[in-house]
Amino acid sequence: MNNSKKNKISKYFEDFSIGDSYQLPSRTQTSAIFSMFQAASGDNDPIHYDKEFCKSKGHSDMLAHGMQVFIQTAAGAGSFPTEIRDSLLGLVEFSGKIIKPVYREDTLYPELFISNLIEQNTTGIIEMKAIVYNQNKILVFEGCHKYLLKKKMPNDK
User: Fold this and answer.
1) What domains are there in the chain, each with its CATH number?
2) What's the pTM?
3) What is the pLDDT of residues 93-139, one digit of tens each?
4) Which of 17, 38, 64, 106 is least crowded, fewest Cβ atoms below 10 Å from its Cβ?
C-alpha cells in the first residue's frame, strides 16, 4: 500500500462532531489583495479602491468588499478538505453577515466550527459556523457553510 494513501484516511459524515473546529490562516488585507479581488470580481466601486473617496464617506481607509471578507473563511485554506477528500460531494450552501467594517491593512483571523449535523440516508450535511475577527479581536463577520458528505458504506465501518 502506498504510504501517502495509508496516512491520509478520509473522514465521512459520521466521523464529525458538533464543536469540531478549524483554524484558518490569518491574512492581512493588503492593497494587493484589494486589487486581486477587484480584478476577480469586476467590482469598481470607489468605496473599495479610492482612499480619499472612502475618507469623504467617513471611513479611515479603503473599505473591504463584504465578499472579500467572506472568502477568508474558505475551508480550502485549512485542513478540512484533506480530511474529507473521499467523502465530499460538494458545498451546497453558504451565507454570511458583515458585522463591522474591514479596512486595508486589517489582519483577519477566520475560524470554522461544526454547528450542526443533519443526517440523511446515505449522506449528511455538515453545517459550519464561520467567524472572522480582526487584529483587535473584534468580530467582523459571521456566516455559515454547508457541505454534503457521504456516509460510510457498511463495508467501510
Assistant:
1) 7-156 (3.10.129.10)
2) 0.88
3) 999 999 999 999 999 999 999 999 999 999 999 999 999 999 999 99
4) 17
